[in-house]
Design brief:
By secondary structure, this protein is an alpha+beta fold. It has 2 domains: 92 residues, Protein of unknown function (DUF541), domain 1 (Translation Initiation Factor IF3, 2-Layer Sandwich); 96 residues, 2-Layer Sandwich (Alpha-Beta Plaits), CATH 3.30.70.2970. The chain contains 4 helices and 9 strands. The relative contact order is 0.22.
Length: 231
């Protein structure tokens, strides 16, 4: 029993020594992580471009005494509009809305039906005016747009984001240098949003000339908050 007690004591001593810091400064029991030294800054970026493509919506609204008559008249008119858009080389034609609803008199009695059909199309800004005129001549009585193509706007915003991150890095580098530190890797990036600016102007013109559609400069801003390591 005395020998077993001595062996147990030696084992306990070995375990206790295992938790003591080793000569190289490490510890078998582990040590608390050193807090990360960081710097957080904001950056802003702006990108500008002139859009060349746009989306325009064209609609036909018709009324008739019966639902069938309203829908039939609407379909016939919309087919002419679609043919005109195709002839004008409009791209990516897609139906947006098809609706049919009753219209009511002052006494709330149904007095007829209204049918609506609308399509969207991608056009170049150079051809937007003449395409709008062709669609209206073919029977369109509703036109909305033009709106710069979303994919083009996304590319402009991506450029603004890149400029915002570069701006944040420049600020962080200056602050780190002033504090006698060196700038390290990016720890995190947070996007703060964007502010698009209206990108076109539209004005009424002479009926003998194409509807004027003037693309302006598209300007988008982006803001980010970036955290960098120090040292």
């Amino acid at each position: 029993m005395k020998r077993l007690a001595i062996v147990a004591a030696l084992l306990l001593a070995a375990v206790a020594l295992g938790g003591v810091a080793r000569p190289d400064g490490s510890s078998a029991a582990g040590s608390a992580d050193t807090p990360q030294r960081t710097i957080t800054v904001s950056g802003n970026g702006t990108a500008s471009s002139t859009p060349t493509r746009a989306t325009v919506s064209f609609g036909v609204q018709t009324q008739a005494a019966s639902a069938q008559a309203a829908l039939a008249a609407n379909g016939a008119a919309m087919r002419k509009v679609i043919a005109a858009l195709q002839s004008a080389d409009a791209k990516d034609l897609q139906t947006e809305t098809v609706s049919l609803s009753p219209t009511f008199a002052d006494d709330q009695q149904v007095q007829g039906y209204t049918a609506l059909n609308s399509v969207s199309a991608t056009v170049t800004y150079a051809a937007a005016g003449s395409t709008i005129d062709a669609a209206v001549e073919a029977g369109a009585n509703q036109v909305y747009g033009p709106s710069p193509l979303a994919s083009d706007a996304d590319a402009v915003y991506a450029k603004a984001l890149a400029d915002a991150v570069a701006d944040a890095r420049s600020h962080a580098r200056a602050l780190a240098a002033a504090a006698g530190e060196t700038l390290g890797e990016v720890v995190s990036v947070e996007e703060s949003g964007s502010t698009p600016v209206p990108m076109f102007q539209k004005a009424a013109g002479d009926v003998a000339a194409p509807t004027p559609v003037i693309p302006g400069t598209q300007e988008t801003t982006a803001s980010v908050t970036v955290t960098f390591q120090l040292g």
